[in-house]
Amino acid sequence: MKKWLFLAILSLSIGVVFIYSTPLLHKNRGTQSETKVVSNMILREPPVKKIQTIDINEDQIYLGDLLLVNNTFPIKHGSIKEDIVPLSSIEGLEKQFGTSIHSISLSNEAGLEFLKMMEAAKMDGLLHFSVNSGFRGFEEQANLYKEMGAAYALPPGYSEHNQGLAIDVGSTLMKMEHAPEGKWMAEHAWDYGFILRYPKGKSDITGIEYEPWHFRYVGLPHSVIMKENNFVLEEYIQYLKDHKTVSTTVDGTEYFVTYHPVTEKLELVEPILSQYEISGNNVDGVIVTRFK
Ligand SMILES: [Zn+2]
């Protein structure tokens, strides 16, 4: 009899517990699934932070396509691009410009992008470009400075032309400022890694008056980021220092750009994309451009 009573009380209490807990279960159904997701996340293995270590030394501050060259930061002899070639050795350019470019040289990498740009301009009906200057060695710059004087030329090391990434482009029709060629370049050069280095309204920052003909190769995605933010190179270098990372997608390629003051070992933490390029800023650090 006692056993019966015990079992009866037990089953009754289970029933009571079930009845009382049922509405609670219903009430919490919505949040229950969320809890489940959260607990799944907790249960999952914590992601392992991938770290890529790159050896870096102080010399790298002064090498690459993103060097800031101006009155404050001249470039060193060792900063000259190693792939300087006569523009006439680039087949398509020789075809378009003929003998007029025989004495003009540029970094091969920049020259190939310049060719792509000229081909695109031609497709848009622009046929009257001229190339007036490219790479100038330190000696050539010194002679120019002596001949032209401080008002018209820069001393060796202080001109962007001394590195091999700057090109002066003109129009055979009229002054670049008014020419359709100048307008086209100002709009499209960025898509090919070139920047209008000395734009209107920025001479207080660049230290150089508006030069609608002077284009500087910095490569992608930097030229595009600079255009989107209306940055000159001085502003972009500072922006990278302040923000440390910038990511963007250009033509379907993902880019992840980071600034690093120079230390002995450079540790790149995720995201690690498949390829990277390093350029100094000519000031105090390096800029790593990762992409895939
Ligand atoms: Zn120039």
Report on the structure:
- A four-stranded antiparallel β-sheet has the order 4-5-7-6. A four-stranded antiparallel β-sheet has the order 8-9-12-11.
- Mean pLDDT is 85; it is low at 12-42.
- The relative contact order is 0.14.
- Helices cover 37% and strands 21% of the residues.
- The protein is built from nine helices and twelve strands.
- It has 292 residues and is an alpha+beta fold.
- It is globular.
- It starts with a helix and ends with a strand.
- The chain has helices spanning 2-27, 29-43, 91-97, 108-123, 138-148, 180-188, 203-206, 222-229, 233-243, and strands at residues 51-55, 84-86, 105-107, 129-133, 166-171, 194-196, 214-217, 245-250, 253-261, 265-269, 275-280, 285-291.
- Zinc ion is lined by residues 133, 161, 166, 168, 214.
Any chance you could write out the topology, listing elements then pairs?
Blueprint: H1 2-27, H2 29-43, E1 51-55, E2 84-86, H3 91-97, E3 105-107, H4 108-123, E4 129-133, H5 138-148, E5 166-171, H6 180-188, E6 194-196, H7 203-206, E7 214-217, H8 222-229, H9 233-243, E8 245-250, E9 253-261, E10 265-269, E11 275-280, E12 285-291
Antiparallel strand pairs: 1-10, 2-3, 4-5, 5-7, 6-7, 8-9, 9-12, 11-12
The structure holds zinc ion (ZN).
Zinc ion binds at residues 133, 161, 166, 168, 214.
